[in-house]
Amino acid sequence: MPTRTLLRENADGISTLTLNRPERLNALDHATIDAIMQELDRIEADESIAVVVLTGTGDRAFSAGADIFGLAQSLENGVEVAMREFVRRGQALTGRIEAFPKPIIVAVNGLAYGGGCEITEAAPLAIASEDATFAKPEIDLGFPPPFGGTQRLPRLIGRKRALAMILTAEPISAQEALAMGLVNRVVPKDRLLDEAYQLAAAIRRKSRLAVTACLASVTRGLNVGIHEGLAIEASQFARVASTQDVAEGVGAFLEKRQASFGDI
Fold it and tell me: What confidence tens digit (pLDDT) does each residue in 182-218 have?
């Protein structure tokens, strides 16, 4: 049997997805992107899963980005084919990660270049090992980042910092990524998954409805004006205000006890 390019393991309400192409630095070929999309569909429908951790196999790379051999084959068949097979597929992946209703924590275990960096940009949370590096090497191939990197990176770290990465292709360290706001935390490599699971467990104890509402409010609000954003925030509050979770949370506060949100 061929080695699967994506592994999944579930434990304690957390699903771990692991990119599994270490011989290719976990590059994102068409099959791997499709597998991630399929697993996210299954996870969204699985009520036993509250949080997702996404990482890579091996010591060298989270993901080196898109599989350029696959891109070359698509380009041989014309621009429209490359747009359909490469650009739209990659943008659909990062869009799905960004808008996913359950938190996705990227655990960056090595280099995150190109599409690997774009996944990190799209994910709501990211933890990096001390030796992780981030880069936007697409310009050296003659094209701009195509999986959302020209749009999300400036929103995350600012226009000038983003353009320095995009126009030079020079990598930045994990500490630089932390200072810019690309990742939440930098930890020793041997602690990476433990730290990711600790963060996942902390979120898992919260109200599922509130977590989803927070994700939707922040993600949708980033791309609109403040007045529209406030309306989104209000609508998410209205969605949960009459639920048992809010009754439990407010009641627990008033009664000076720990709230219980049906933890599994």
Answer: 999 999 999 999 999 999 999 999 999 999 999 999 9
Tell whether 259 is covered by a domain.
no
Q: What is the pTM of this model?
A: 0.94
Number of domains, the chain: 2
- 136-141: list long-range contacts, CB under 8 Å, 24+ apart: 136/165, 136/166, 136/169, 137/65, 137/113, 137/169, 138/65, 138/114, 138/166, 138/169, 139/166, 139/167, 139/168, 139/169, 140/169, 141/68
Q: pLDDT category, 72, cuts 50, 70, 90?
A: very high
Query: Are 2 and 35 spatial neighbours (Cβ–Cβ below 8 Å)?
Result: no
Say if residue 139 is in the same domain as residue 214: no
Same domain assignment for residues 179 and 76: yes
pLDDT digits (tens, 9 = 90+) for 117-162: 999 999 999 999 999 999 999 999 999 999 999 999 999 999 999 9
| Pairwise CA distance, residues 126 & 106, whole Å | 5
Catalytic residues: 118, 138
The end-to-end CA distance of the chain, in Å, is 35
Q: Is residue 45 situated within a structural domain?
A: yes
**Helix (H) or strand (E) run with residue 196 in it:** helix 192-204
The dihedral of CA 177, 180, 182, 183: what is its sign? positive
